[in-house]
Structure formats: C-alpha cells, structure tokens
Write a structure and sequence with these properties.
By secondary structure, the chain is an alpha/beta fold. 34% of the residues lie in helices and 15% in strands. It contains ten helices and eleven strands. Strands 8-7-6-9-10 form a five-stranded parallel beta sheet, with helices on one face. It has a four-stranded parallel beta sheet with strand order 3-2-4-5, with helices on both faces. The chain has a two-stranded antiparallel ribbon with strand order 1-11. The two termini are 32 Å apart. The structure holds N-carbamoyl-L-aspartate (NCD).
C-alpha cells in the first residue's frame, strides 16, 4: 500500500504488509507520546479536524497526535456551527477546507460521507467514523492493542478466539475490526447481541470467505474460552427513538462476577469507549477497573500512536521524525506509563 498522499477511508485498503508498517511506525512514536522527547517534523503543517458527530477520544487523539508531531490543529465540531447547516455540500466544504489544511480527519453521521468529502478534497482525508459504516483508525488501534496484549500471554492474532458483545448492527468499530481480521488466519468469533442488533451478513460473509469460524448468539451462556472479549455500547444515536434504544441497554453487562464465571483467566477486556456507565446500561462495570486484563485505557492510549503513524505515513515524513527531535524541558513522568 502506498501511504503518501493517500486517503484512509476503509480497512479494505490495508494488506498485511501495510499493517505491519503502521504498527512499526506506531512503536517508534512511543517516546514522543510519553514526552521523553519532542519532534518538530510537522512544524507549520495544519490538520483540519472536522467532527460532525459527538467524539472525545477520536477527536482529541487525532489533534494530540498531530500536535505531538509538531503540527497545528484547526477544529470544527457539530453540524450546527458549520456551513453544512446552511445547506453546503460536502464537496464544497472539502474544496474550501482542504486549501486551509495539509490533511483532514473527519467524522460524519452518514455512511459513505467521508469518501464523498474526500472527492472534493485536495489533501489526504482520514475517516474518523462515517455513521454505522466504518472506523478504520479505531480498527487499527484495536488490532495493535490485541497484538500487544496477546503477545504478553505468548499468543498470536492468528488462531485467537474473540468474543464481540452488544450492538453489533450499528457499531462501526466491530464492523471495521472484523473486516481487518480477515487478513489473519483461523480466528474464531463469537458474536453476542440482541437478535435485532446482530452482526450484518456482509461482515459474516467476509469472515467465512477468509476461512474464519463464527458463532452467533443472543445470550451469554457457559464458559467462553475467549482470548479477547470486546464489549460495545448500544449506539442510541442510530435508532429511530431513544425509547427503542433503551430496550436493548443493559442486556449484556460485563462485571467481575460474569467475567469470572464466563471467561478464562487472562481474557483481555476491550471496549472502544465511551462505556455507557448509566445504571440502566453499565455494560462494563467499574468493579473491573483494577483487573490487569482490562485493556481499555491502554487501548485508548494506543490511539495516539496509531494516529501519529498514519499522519507521518500519509504526509511522507515517517523516516524524518527523529531528525527533527528537540528536548522536553517541562516536568513529566508519563515515561512510566
Ligand atoms: C466509538 C465510535 O464512535 O464509533 N467510539 C470511538 O470512536 N472510540 C464507539 C462508540 O461510540 O460507541
């Protein structure tokens, strides 16, 4: 895969070599994220960070990643405060904003919108989530996390068993991650969701074509010898009404007791976050916060490394980062993270 100048719109663009390249550059970004050193490699470059849907982690980690490479961030959040609310097309917005920026990260509620935007853009566009469709950078950081966490336990992505739970219909993170896992071998998937929120058949077909096995269930029973349990939130914003979403909330809770009863020791616990911690949902209980297998915050931290790697690659500076190193002069003990 040729990264320089390319858009990152879908996990379908990646092959095994491209993945390893991203992960290797992400590893090299750790000292910068840990504030052991700084780089000015993107000094003068501008990221247009356009988020037309709610976001905390994805938006801030795109911005942080760009800042850590020495670049500046210009942000637009919400439809209401942008000219899209005045009826402007994505094409026009892209034509204009791409002349103000060197690269654009974008999230939008409509499937296919980021690709449509990219057609009008004169700079690379990175998909930060297009409706229920895809979330490629999340899938990359999820896979990077899975690889690292399994490595600690002497296991590999090939041959693993992953259990995905919750809103598998509208959850774009599980769609992108499952598709990306088609690049690996012999994976077992267990999909647990309310029947109405099952994994789309398009994704199941892709898994079958890749030679993977999957089980689909609407209840959590017995011991699942999963290596990874990936919990998700009911995507309330994708339902016709909040009442409709409410009936699915809290169906599959993961807490210490359930974890001990249904999973083997050392099953790695993941969630793209935000977890819905309201009492009626509580899909991932705080009583797991001190469980060493809870990887959700390591997962979120990895988002910065992956997004730094993608910026470096798409802007063609992946081999120049350390050439522009400077010192960190302020107090910081992030190095111990
Ligand atoms: C996810 C998303 O926006 O798709 N969050 C994220 O980007 N980390 C998952 C979610 O909102 O439930």
């Amino acid at each position: 895969m040729h990264f320089k100048g390319s858009n990152i719109l879908s996990v379908g663009q990646f092959n095994a070599d491209a993945l390893q390249q991203v992960f290797q550059i992400a590893d090299q970004m750790a000292p910068y994220a840990q504030r052991k050193k700084r780089t000015k490699v993107l000094d003068g470059a501008i990221l247009g960070n356009l988020f037309f849907e709610p976001s905390t982690r994805t938006r801030v980690s795109f911005g942080t990643a760009f800042n850590l490479l020495g670049g500046e961030v210009r942000e637009t959040t919400g439809m209401e405060s942008s000219a899209i609310a005045k009826g402007e097309s994505l094409y026009d917005t892209a034509r204009v904003l791409s002349s103000y920026s060197d690269i654009i990260a974008m999230r939008h509620p409509k499937s296919g919108s980021v690709a449509e935007f990219a057609e009008g853009s004169r700079v690379p566009v990175i998909n930060g989530g297009d409706g229920p469709n895809e979330h490629p950078t999340q899938a990359l950081l999820d896979l990077y996390t899975i690889q690292k966490e399994l490595h600690h336990h002497g296991r590999t992505v090939d041959g693993m068993h992953i259990c995905m739970i919750g809103d598998l219909k509208y959850g774009r993170t599980v769609h992108s991650l499952s598709k990306l896992l088609c690049l690996y071998k012999n994976i077992r998937f267990t999909f647990i969701s309310p029947r109405e929120l099952a994994m789309p058949s398009e994704v199941l077909n892709a898994l079958s074509n890749a030679g993977h096995q999957f089980n689909v269930s609407d209840e959590l029973t017995g011991v699942l010898d999963a290596d990874i349990v990936y919990q998700t939130r009911i995507q309330q914003e994708r339902f016709a009404s909040l009442e409709e979403a409410a009936q699915y909330r809290g169906r599959f809770r993961l807490n210490s007791d359930i974890y001990t009863r249904h999973y083997k020791p050392n099953t790695v616990i993941m969630h793209p976050l935000p977890r819905d911690s309201r009492e009626e949902a509580n899909e991932l209980d705080n009583d797991l916060n001190h469980n060493p297998n809870l990887a959700i915050f390591r997962q979120a931290d990895n988002g910065v490394l992956i997004r730094m790697a993608l910026f470096a690659l798409t802007l063609g500076v992946e081999n120049l980062v350390s050439k522009y190193d400077t010192e960190v002069v302020w107090f910081s003990d992030k190095a111990n993270y």
